[in-house]
Amino acid sequence: MVGRVEAPNSKENGWTKLVIEDRDPIGSVDSRLFGSFVEHLGRCVYTGIYEPGHPSADGDGYRTDVMELVKELGVTTIRYPGGNFVSGYRWRDGIGNQSQRPRRLDLAWHSTETNEFGLHEMAKWLDKLGGNELMEAVNLGTQGPQEALDLLEYANIPSGTALSEQRRANGSDAPFDIRMWCLGNEMDGPWQLGHRTAQEYARIAAITAAGMRQIDPDIELAVCGSSSHSMPTFGSWERTVLEETYENINFISAHAYYQPVCNDMASFLASGTDMDGFIKDVGSIIDATKAQLKSSHDVFISFDEWNIWYQDAEQSQTPKGIGNWPVAPHLLEDIYTAADAVAFGDLLVTLLRNVDRVHAASLAQLVNVIAPIMTVPGGGAWRQTTFYPFSQAAHLSKGGTVVRSLLTGTGHQTDKYGVVDDINAVPVLCADGSLAVFAVNRSLDRSNRLTLDIGPTGSYKTVGMTTLHEEDYTLANTVEAPDQVLPRKNGQVEFLPDRNMVVAELAPVSWNVIHVG
Ligand code: AHR
User: Fold this and answer.
1) Tens of pLDDT along 272-295?
2) How far is the CA of 322 from the centre of ligand 1 (A)?
């Protein structure tokens, strides 16, 4: 952002110019950027993706109405099975005869885990979806390296060992061939079962990584970074963990959730500012570690939990008590507004602008739990407002390249981030040669005239725009009214080929997709 003209108190329309710089790429969009996350939490698995007996369930109990929505969403990789859940999970509970699997206490979410659904069921579901990639997390909370090594042997060794033969006997002749593994979850968080200091975690992660690589040298490993940018240990945690594990890992994770604090909508809509700073800070620590170790190896960021989450409202709903361990309770079932979809879009734009650093990301989570897809047990499934920015960006960006751009324009004041640009935008050169620009107007009250300088227009002939915007930005989709908030075709866009320009009017609090083809 350069040369911002500040007009914070003006009611006049804002303006923004986005100059696309000679198609110079920031990086290609890794398909893993559009991953999501399925945790054994609330109704994400049970009555979410899996509900035997549901009218839409197939012979394996998978809800086909949900599968159709997952495909439409455009999700790629699925991180599984947690989350906080994984830090107390015994993976062996979830294999073998379903009727004989143990019921266990899930301490993370104060629930009962029936283990009806486990690794085989997840792998089969992904196959049915069309071969989506599984990103498996291992328990480094209550378990350690041996259980992780056993799980890797069970999953990836073709045959001829006790564990690989057990997998085959359990119905999966071919190995699952899982490429990407998370070494624990949020181990920096005091709430995490098995929470450790950075040094303690770094040693266990290093030992586990080295052993896993001995079994399968080509797997990709992600160590835990910080659970949020604001963790008191942020920075020193990353440095310690990277120093100890650097050569044996491929990713360090980052997690971030945003919500309006004290109804400060202006800051909330600019949440990408914090996420961008988080990515830049972790990137600097990766670079410093690489230099210090004189390494030629590269480590990237796996932003493997991100979303809007009304965490403050949730805490009071968590069931407690020695006798209260429900199966698949209603937890974290946030309903998202139009404003939430715009803040969410701001995060998506931020992830795309950082594709040189972020090679994997997981929207947390996929169904029912802070999710773009909601279900009614025994009933229908519907799309939340956040479904749309994700699916539009996923479908248009896959196989594409993020090109460099220079943004100039009006800004406004926020309590948390000072003056921010009214518009946050990113151009993506799509796989088919067309150009998509994802643009968020973060201003609460000002429209903004966005001028795209797209350079030599080549074969471009047409432009189209869709906008997600509601006069009342608190409007949400619900089971009764599932299609209230949608991106709609917006004619307020013009292609000026003589001047290599596209001009669009962006409403306040809006998510926009401009597509030049
Ligand atoms: O996604 C919900 C929870 O948020 C995950 O279980 C945990 O990793 C994070 O704190």
Assistant:
1) 999 999 999 999 999 999 999 999
2) 23
Backbone angles phi and psi of 215, in degrees to 5: -75, -50
Which residue's alpha carbon is at the smallest distance from atom 3 of ligand 1? 83
d(CA 465, CA 494): 10
Q: Is the CB of 364 under 6 A from ligand 1?
A: yes
Specify whether 61 is located in the same domain as 199: yes
**Phi, psi (rounded to 5 degrees) for 424:** -115, 125
Quick check: is 68 catalytic? no
Q: Is 305 a catalytic residue?
A: yes
Catalytic residue of the set 51, 121, 147, 186: 186
CA distance 314 to 336: 14
> What pLDDT score does 459 carry?
77
User: What CATH number corresponds to the domain at position 124?
Assistant: 3.20.20.80
Q: What is the total count of domains within the chain?
A: 2
What pTM does this model have?
0.96
Domain boundaries, position 107: 30-398
How far is Cα 205 from Cα 137, in angstroms, rounded to an integer? Answer: 12
Same domain, yes or no: 179 and 308: yes
